[in-house]
């Protein structure tokens, strides 16, 4: 593999390892992926979850059912097609997702306070560019 890619991956895993939130709840990797999908895309239903997890419709339904039982998601009806179920994050689900995928803001602030204004700007610009390109390339 390209050494630049390996290096970027190492930087990312170092950042996440040192700056992630302490995980309070027990939640599966599949459940986090479902919450991320619902958060990042619109009109997500069982079909989209099955495709993401690469599982059958029935298996995806079971995963979704467990996430709903934890009060992280709710089901609503698609206003354009009442037959279709749309998944929505609850406030609890949003918080769980944040704690399990985001960087701890207090830890991040401590690190950023150690940087010069120019370094902060470079970090922000680099992450912004990478974020924007991932949205258009994927």
TrEMBL record:
Signal peptide positions on this chain = none
User: What processes does the entry annotate via GO biological process terms?
Assistant: response to stress
Gene Ontology MF, one: DNA binding
What Pfam families does the annotation carry?
Staph_reg_Sar_Rot
Q: Which UniProt keywords apply?
A: Coiled coil, DNA-binding, Transcription, Transcription regulation
The cross-references to InterPro entries, in alphabetical order and at most eight, read:
HTH_MarR-typ, MarR/SlyA-like, Transc_reg_Sar_Rot_HTH, WH-like_DNA-bd_sf, WH_DNA-bd_sf
Transmembrane parts of this sequence: none
Q: Which organism is it from?
A: Neobacillus massiliamazoniensis
Q: Where is the HTH marR-type domain?
A: 1-132
Spell out the coiled coil positions from the record: 98-125
Name it: MarR family transcriptional regulator
